[in-house]
TrEMBL record:
Biased amino acid composition, Gly residues: 65-92
InterPro entries documented for this protein: DUF1800
Record-given protein name: DUF1800 domain-containing protein
Compositionally biased region (Pro residues): 111-142
Pfam family, one: DUF1800
Ranges of Low complexity composition bias in the record: 28-39
Species: Ottowia oryzae
């Protein structure tokens, strides 16, 4: 597809007129791995014509999600979202997210430096009991029949794409049985093992982080266990580690061990996931538990509080006390922890470092795969009082860690706090309190007396009556913006993208898409779960749209340019070629209506409006398909137009 053909089809398909403030800067096309500070070429007249409509397109996307344009603010939802912001910065020092001061703002509690010698702690107070649990209806009954559109829509929430085979499998097996089959599937080749097979443990490449990008694209595009990979990716945006911030040797292997940890635990228990994440060397390096030492009154040294704060704020309970349905306990935000809780809990995470038995990192970096181990002489033995409970003084580090993590994992906030974020990542940005309550109830008890059964929780998220209802009868704010990296992965899986040499040389896509797997700019993820675009109908009604925090006219433009070139030309780098297979689509090239219908099903679950279908069909019909070049152009343009329209970008 020539650039002019793509732009002409896009302009024909675009209905809105450009806003007066439309973007006027050009965006480099298809420049992977380029520096963000690279000079931007002067805009061509053709590209300026294309960009003139992007403001209108952005407004259309906002409108489809209930908004009305405008830039974002820092307000967030109550309870589960407070303080998970942060603008810039890396890991532990990423700023001070907002917390309620004026209405609609949020800040993280400041943690003043405690005195070297702890003051006598008050007697333990019990952890507040949860509020009344909402009534939990039985799981939705399986429909007598599942349409192809319903199956595709389910797959878009539960997995990474919807193939013809997967649609048929969901229809024949039913939602629940299909999920059981997927969740029982053996995990794909571990990221660590793939890196080893490629020889990336060599001395001359061990400092490169780019191999973690190659590993992730291989995992996300080729793995058969797509549900596991989708849910693991969601968890990577909750318990965040970013390779962009890791220093030292073998960062790619450190991230592979972290990624494999997520894959290993996403259908296990929350308590085990929390244990392994706490001792993971990548997390230890990212949030400063690695090398963290006990207090020293003589020097004034105190335990680093970074992980202690974030494990509560982001990985478990959040900033505010919650009812089981995620609403504020008592009706108004009440802090779930304070500075004393942080400073006391920080003592538990002292004394840990990489396992010395695996320090042959130059040849086989097993130290980044093994859990961290504690040195007793560096571990604080002081009593730790937090969240209304006490870890007594004097026990060994492992015992104290077990006791502390038990306290966190059993806090009543964990179910609604984690459950709501999983709903947001997989299904909708604005779940009802009843939906959150049903998922939290399953977290609290899977029906067999097990707390934190993540397999049961994931099924509860995906099989809930609200998730499975017809989006046509859902509230206007239902759904979520598809994350850019997920759009790219969906394209790659839908059209059988392959790597010519299995190296998957695709670098970080941060500059092209605004995000790339395992490359969050801070511990607060790419966006906050409570983000609200300012000046929109969503802001007026208190609705949230997390992914819009990384959405603006520039990212919309770069996404369109990037996908145009990837759809048509694939991706070539370092003598490695990545290309799609459009054989089935080319078979429909002389029937534009059938071609658009196929793309509508596979990419959106038939969510394109009749007018959008008509507009795309009419646009691609103008492309001459009498020769091979024209036939390719028609297919490429059809895919691009579907993947750039609001009906697709907003997943319902």
């Amino acid at each position: 597809m020539s650039p002019d053909d793509a732009d002409t089809a896009l302009l024909r398909a675009r209905a809105p007129e450009p806003h007066a403030d439309a973007a006027g800067a050009d965006v480099a096309t298809g420049s992977q791995g380029a520096s963000a500070s690279a000079p931007t070429p002067a805009p061509s007249p053709r590209r300026l014509t294309q960009l003139a409509g992007l403001s209108a397109l952005m407004s259309a996307v906002l409108a489809a999600c209930g908004g009305g344009g405008g830039s974002g603010d820092d307000s967030g939802g109550t309870g589960t979202t407070g303080g998970t912001g942060g603008t810039g910065g890396v890991g532990p020092d990423s700023g001070n997210p907002l917390r309620p001061g004026a209405p609609g703002t949020e800040t993280r509690p400041s943690t003043p430096t405690p005195s070297p010698t702890p003051s006598p702690a008050p007697g333990p107070s019990p952890t507040p009991s949860p509020g009344p649990s909402p009534s939990t209806p039985p799981p939705p009954s399986q429909p007598t029949s599942i349409t192809t559109a319903e199956a595709a829509r389910f797959l878009h929430q539960a997995a990474l794409s919807a193939s013809d085979a997967d649609i048929s499998a969901v229809q024949s097996m039913g939602y629940s049985a299909w999920l059981d089959d997927q969740m029982s599937m053996a995990s794909y080749t571990a990221g660590w093992d793939w890196l080893m097979a490629q020889g990336y443990n060599r001395l001359d490449v061990r400092y490169n982080s780019q191999y973690s990008d190659f590993m992730m694209w291989n995992q996300l595009v080729t793995a058969r266990d797509a549900v596991r990979k989708r849910v693991a990716l969601a968890w990577s945006e909750i318990m965040v580690v970013s390779v962009s911030s890791l220093e030292g040797d073998t960062p790619s292997f450190a991230m592979a061990a972290y990624w494999d940890l997520l894959n290993r635990n996403v259908f296990g228990t929350y308590r085990q996931l929390l244990q392994e994440m706490t001792l993971n060397p990548a997390m230890g390096a990212y949030l400063n538990t690695r090398g963290n030492q006990k207090e020293n009154p003589a020097t004034g040294r105190l335990p680093d509080e970074n992980y202690a704060r974030e494990v509560m704020q982001l990985f478990s309970i959040g900033l505010y006390q919650l009812n089981t349905d995620g609403t504020p306990r008592g009706g108004t935000p009440t802090e779930s922890y304070g500075p004393s809780d942080v400073s006391n809990l920080a003592r538990i995470f002292t004394g840990y470092d990489r396992d010395p038995a695996g320090h042959q990192a130059a040849v086989y970096p097993v130290a980044y795969r093994n859990p961290m181990v504690a040195t007793a002489s560096r571990h604080s033995n002081l009593e730790a009082r937090f969240l209304g409970a006490t870890v007594p003084a004097g026990a060994d580090p492992a015992t104290r860690l077990t006791q502390a993590l038990d306290i966190i994992a059993n806090h009543p906030n964990v179910g609604p706090f984690i459950g709501r974020q999983l709903i947001q990542r997989l299904v909708t940005s604005n779940p009802s309190a009843a939906y959150v309550g049903r998922v939290a109830a399953v977290f609290n008890n899977n029906g067999a007396g097990v707390r934190g059964d993540l397999r049961a929780v994931t099924k509860a998220v995906l099989l809930d009556p609200e998730a499975r209802r017809d989006p046509g009868v859902a509230p206007p704010n239902w759904g979520k913006l598809r994350e850019p990296m997920l759009r790219f992965v969906q394209w790659a899986r839908t059209f059988d993208v392959t790597s010519s040499d299995n190296r998957w040389v695709v670098y970080s896509l941060e500059s092209a898409l605004g995000q790339s797997p395992l490359r969050s700019p801070s511990v607060f993820n790419f966006f906050r779960p409570g983000y609200v675009p300012a000046g929109t109908a969503m802001a007026a009604s208190g609705q949230q749209a997390p992914e819009f925090q990384i959405t603006n006219e520039n990212t919309v433009a770069t996404y369109i340019n990037f996908m145009r070139d990837r759809i048509a030309y694939g991706y070539s780098s370092d003598n490695s070629k990545i290309a799609a297979n459009y054989t089935r689509e080319l078979g429909l090239v002389n029937d534009p209506a059938a071609l658009v219908a196929r793309l509508n099903l596979l990419l959106t679950g038939n969510q394109l409006s009749a007018s959008t279908v008509s507009t795309i069909r009419d646009a691609i019909t103008t492309i001459n398909a009498d020769n091979e070049s024209g036939r390719n152009n028609r297919v490429w343009a059809a895919i691009l137009l579907v993947m750039c329209c609001p009906d697709y970008i907003v997943q319902k």
